[in-house]
What we know:
Elements: H1 2-6, H2 8-12, H3 17-43, H4 51-76
Helix pairs in contact: 3-4
Amino acid sequence: MFRRLFQAHPASVGETYLEHMVHAAYFGSRMLLAGLACLIHALIPSLFQSTGREAITELYTKMVTHRRATATDTSSDASRQVRVT
């Protein structure tokens, strides 16, 4: 049960629990701040004109870059594979 809740998903993306927690917290806080900027932009269109787009672009780039790096690491190093039962 512990392994399924806290280790299976991070292992599936090539991260430890703590690495995954840091990345997920960064992504979540970045999305919250960008969302707040978008709500303010909805009220006052001259403010935060590109903040939402820039946040989405930044997060997408980080996610894809990390995914490619992880795929390269796991394909070249079979010892990092984690078997979840």
